[in-house]
Amino acid sequence: MGIPFWKCVTAMTMFLVLNLHNANVHGLAVMSVDIGSEWMKVAIVSPGVPMEIALNKESKRKTPTAIAFRNGERTFGEDALTVGVRFPSNCYIYFLDLLGKEIDNPIVDLYKKRFPYYNIIPDPKRNTVLFKHGESDDYFSPEELVAMMLEKAREFAQDSAGQAINEAVISVPGYFGQAERTAMLKGAEIAGIKVLQLINSYTAAALNYGIFRTKSFNETSPMYMMFYDMGAYGTQVSVVSYQLIKSKDRIAPELQPHLAVLGVGYERNLGGLEMQLRLRDYLAAKFNNLKLTPNDVTKNTRSMAKLFKEAGRLKNVLSANTEHFAQIEGLIDEKDMRIKVTREELEELCKDLFDKVVLPAKRALEASGLTIELIEQVMLSGAGTRVPRVQDRLVKDLKSNQPLGRSLNTDEASALGAAYKAADLSNGFKVKAFITKDATLFPIQVTFDKEVIDENKPAKQVKRILFGHMNPYPQRKIITFNKHQQDFDFTVGYAELSHLDENEIKCLGSLSLSNIKLNGVRDAYSKYQGQEGADTKGIKAHFAMDDSGLLVLQNVELLVEKTVTADTEEESTLSKIGNTISNLFKGPEEVLKEEKPVHEAPEEDPISQASNNTTNNTDTLDQTNSTEQVKLNDTIPISDSKKNLKVVTVKETIDVNHEYLFVLPAQDDDLQNSINKITGLKEIDLAKSRKETSLNNLETAIIETREKLEQPDYSSSATEIETRSILDKCSEISNWLEDDGFGAEAEVLDSKFDDLKKIVLPVWERTFEHAERPSRLEALNSALNNSNSFLEKIKNTTLDDTPFTQVEIDTLDKLISEITSWKDKQVEEQEKLPKSVDPVLTIQTIAIKHSSIEREMRYLMTKFTSWKPKKKEEPKVKAPTSQADNEKAKTPEEQDNDSTVKTQDDVEKSTEHEPSSTIEDNAESESPLKTDKPKPTELPIVEPTKTEEKGDTHTEL
Questions:
Q1: What is the pTM of this model?
Q2: Which of 1, 5, 496, 694 could form a disulfide with 862 if both were Cys (CB 3.0 to 4.6 A apart)?
């Protein structure tokens, strides 16, 4: 049955609407990147696709954090590690923890000891780490290496999502300080990625756990969980609480899940890497003891790289097996290594490490103020927790009543939790709210000197805590300087770090974060000195700890309260009640986000008023745009009694000179140079990829051409001259490739491909024509047969009973005849030609004829399906309305015969004189139009078939 035209239009409209909707949706995808010391995991959220892990080029769910440079080529992941086995200094690994570190940092010293084959030099401007690559003049900073990995992560995400992605949430270790977090953001900037937020890895894992278990939370009592995360480099343990709280919606508040980090403990060097290094050194010592060669294997960097890789494999195997053989072919001097290692030997090597397993957990409990009995469960995360001895020590030393939790995916929990946060922060998705509050791991304080009153006495230094240990963030705070009326400066830095050991404090680098100098303080005060009704409330510095854990100085201002007169009437009682009620409806989130004042010193008195103002006795205001009503004094004239005194807040901005004291990443020209370097490397990779594609296309074309010419269908479509020419061209290009073609650029390879294509294309087109012609002719014949059937039906019906005109019928008849005649003639001519000659009956011409008959039939069918036949009106016979009227209508003879019995003929005659309505119905049911005209479903419809327009010829090469 044919599809009515209006249905086609409707379907097409809906298709376009859906496509437009999808087009608007494209570009909304976001990603998360869990870039660890050893592995990188990428997760995406795109329209119609919930959180999922993006696969790499090898279709694996995680990629080694490794970058190698060799012969001008850059490789990532497994390919980079393969290069690193042969050329260790060319492959950079475990560089994440070098972010934001100066050259003399203990972490840098440990890195040099672990990987002695890298040439690490100080940055001449920032004294940070630079990798000098081989004998060349290439240098790479840790920020640049991180940018390369983030760029590769975006490539994986875009391939999985099928669209561009520029926004991301990146997970970082919780022990990253201000320098490391700033460096990570700079690496993302170099890669051209907009970071929505940096999230601590343990917070992301806890979020991933919580989003699937909201039904187990309640409003009254929080649920406490511990997340134990042992990764490749370090171990982090967090204690978190889950609870339902009411939203800040004043109209319809709802319960929302809330995640708060209560305590954190960590060991920076307790992880799989240290175990792998010890196993590497153990294998090296065992091999040397075999005395297979006089050379020491530890002195050979390539051999040590092979041992390092084998130690990593062996460590993973021994997590599931009690013993295994370490095997390396040609370790050194073409000598093979085969050494049996048991799990007990590995555990003995790492005995002191296993003794530290429980320490981060105890520190986290201590920081949270909880005991292990209150913890619902200890949830394992991170690949290091798969080591059996780690789990045994946790069970033994923690003495938890619950078994260890293993429901989280140890590799992907952080990436998936960060992906949920990315979807929440992006503008393209609406997810269920899940409030997260992280905790400050390193407290931050402000240090300043009291204003000097007696120049003979030394200035007293004052310290004020801004964000204490385990203070929640994001959060804003204010510190007020009440007695400074001259320009002054203060320092922001880490506060007391007694919860850390001495070496860990050194790993943080500079404990001073920034020096802030305030300019124009005296001028700001002088504006309001002597003004009646002006009361200065001190210099207020507004700080914020944002979602990424970065400290931000938002602004510094002088706060002044002025008493002014206003003609407005006193605030009504109803208005006061309304304001009070609105304050009662403040949600917990609003309370958490309010700026909290940090007083300069409890014993200090407020700054005295500069003017003789006896009417203003208001307290210090910490919030902006706040006012208070002040009672009138008795000394105010009676004529002014109808006017009110109003306290308004005036803010005078203070200029700030901000000097950072910790290690800053590259800025200005250095930053642009890094961006240009990464862009240049990307262009080289693209050129390499394009060259590989062109070379592959050319080699494939040569092989396929030779194979096809051996097939009868293709060989019969070419003349002997064409066949010889094609084979000669294939030989010519093959010889060129063997000589110097593999070093040619993509443009040269493409030109060779085009040369081959020019001589091959005519033969392939003929083959395609001969193969497709029968099916296309069959479709044309079917269309002609259906059209003929349709035409015969119309001719058997009068024009009055159809919607068609005689011109339309004649046009269809003529078109059918012309196409039939053309087809028969062309088929006859084509059959006379050999296959090696260009055909006279082409697929394109058949498609044009097919399209013309379909177009005509579509027009007629559309007209027919929308046509409604008119009913014929028959003259009505007036029926008698009563028995008396019937009697009057009869003749005397008929009246005399009424008493006689009616014969069969009389009955039949009486049937013919039934009421007119019955006659009309019968006449309508027996109408020729109803009999001869078929129903729409019975018409032979020409089903639209796929036609080949110009340019649609299919060519294979």
A1: 0.74
A2: 5
